[in-house]
């Protein structure tokens, strides 16, 4: 958390304006301040300061859970990890307690990377592939077809939940949207990936895209202090609904641990593998 829908919501707000702030597109960076040294993965803080100043924000993209801020000469890549957020405020406001890195823009705004738990990371690189090149396909792109997804599932012999969380297999899914997609597809999280037939694979492919699109439409899920503004949490089918009735069949939602991750499903709608 944040996952693909939350990061996409932040990207759209930064690019088009939203979440109570104007767009940062077209703004030049006039100042930078690194408040937590380990937030910056690459380059050194001295080189970061030298390179980023005077660069203009040309575009904002997303790759999986990574936000890519395209600059005149480089790309600033940010991964929010567990508790990160990107906030635009007036430069006259005091720096917030958990701001780890901020950029002062010529508009008088400040783009702040706020990260309570300090797990988030930032890279300033000439070639973004150096950071995001190993990610799997984007689940909402046209070239991610049911046929390709089925072939990918059968290229592995792994339990579905851990495989879908693997960012080298598919980019952007986290705990929330994986549980939601598996419930929508009526597939148990422990089913082995290469045991799915064509129809099951297509159903899972469709479910992944549907829950991500719904998450984006609802501006993500706001379930703790980390990310605010979305309301997808009000439409969860299984996630964090342990003991509550399944919206499809009425059976109680079950919680187990899979790969050290809390996993929610309906034992009736998502029968276990044989």
Protein described:
- The protein is α+β, with helices and mostly antiparallel strands.
- It folds into 2 domains: 4-132, MutM-like, N-terminal (N-terminal domain of MutM-like DNA repair proteins, Alpha-Beta Barrel); 146-266, Helicase, Ruva Protein, domain 3 (Orthogonal Bundle).
- It contains 7 helices and 11 strands.
- It has helices at 4-16, 45-52, 129-132, 146-154, 160-165, 175-185, 198-217, and strands at residues 29-34, 40-42, 57-63, 66-71, 75-79, 84-90, 99-105, 109-115, 121-125, 253-258, 261-266.
- The strands form 3 sheets. A 5-stranded mixed beta sheet has the order 2-9-5-4-3. Strands 1-7-8-6 form a 4-stranded antiparallel beta sheet, with helices on one face.
- Helix 4 packs across helix 7 and helix 6 packs across helix 7 (198-217).
- The two termini are 32 Å apart.
- The mean pLDDT is 95.
Please give the structural blueprint.
Layout lengths: L3 H13 L12 E6 L5 E3 L2 H8 L4 E7 L2 E6 L3 E5 L4 E7 L8 E7 L3 E7 L5 E5 L3 H4 L13 H9 L5 H6 L9 H11 L12 H20 L35 E6 L2 E6 L8
Parallel strand pairs: 2-9
Antiparallel strand pairs: 1-7, 3-4, 4-5, 5-9, 6-8, 7-8, 10-11
Helix pairs in contact: 1-7, 4-7, 6-7
The ordered H/E elements are HEEHEEEEEEEHHHHHEE
In CATH, the architecture of the largest domain is Alpha-Beta Barrel
The CATH class of the largest domain is identified as: Alpha Beta
> What is the β-strand count?
11
Largest beta sheet: strand ordering? 2-9-5-4-3
Rg computed from alpha carbons, rounded to a whole number of angstroms: 20 Å
For the report, how would you describe the main beta sheet?
5 strands, mixed
* End-to-end separation: 32 Å
What proportion of the residues is helical, as a percent range? 25-40%
Helix/strand-derived category reads alpha+beta
- What is the overall shape? elongated
Within CATH, the superfamily of the largest domain carries the name: MutM-like, N-terminal
Name the average pLDDT.
95
CATH fold-level name of the largest domain = N-terminal domain of MutM-like DNA repair proteins
Low-pLDDT ranges: none
Measured by DSSP, the beta-strand proportion falls in: 15-25%
Q: Counting H and I runs of at least 4 residues, what is the number of helices?
A: 7
């Amino acid at each position: 958390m944040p996952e693909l829908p939350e990061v996409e919501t932040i990207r759209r707000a930064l690019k088009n304006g939203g979440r109570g702030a104007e767009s940062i597109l077209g703004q030049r960076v006039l100042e930078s301040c690194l408040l937590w040294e380990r937030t910056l993965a690459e380059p050194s803080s001295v080189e970061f300061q030298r390179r980023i100043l005077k660069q203009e924000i040309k575009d904002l993209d997303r790759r999986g859970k990574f936000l890519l801020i395209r600059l005149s000469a480089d790309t600033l890549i940010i991964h929010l990890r567990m508790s990160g957020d990107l906030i635009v405020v007036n430069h006259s406001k005091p720096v917030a307690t958990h701001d780890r890195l901020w950029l002062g823009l010529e508009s008088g705004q400040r783009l702040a990377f706020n990260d309570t738990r300090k797990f988030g990371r930032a890279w300033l690189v000439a070639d973004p592939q150096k950071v995001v090149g190993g990610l799997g396909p984007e689940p909402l792109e046209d070239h991610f077809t049911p046929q390709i997804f089925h072939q990918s599932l059968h290229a592995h012999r792994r339990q579905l939940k851990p495989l879908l969380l693997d960012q080298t297999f598919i980019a952007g899914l986290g705990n929330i949207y994986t549980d939601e997609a598996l419930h929508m597809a009526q597939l148990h999280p422990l089913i082995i990936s290469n045991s799915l037939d064509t129809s099951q694979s297509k159903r899972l492919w469709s479910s992944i895209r549907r829950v991500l699109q719904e998450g984006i439409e609802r501006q993500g899920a706001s379930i703790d202090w980390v990310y605010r503004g979305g309301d997808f949490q009000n439409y969860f089918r299984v996630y964090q609904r342990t003991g509550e009735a399944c919206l499809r069949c009425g059976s109680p939602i079950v919680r187990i641990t899979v790969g050290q991750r809390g996993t929610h499903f309906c034992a009736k709608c998502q029968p276990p593998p044989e």
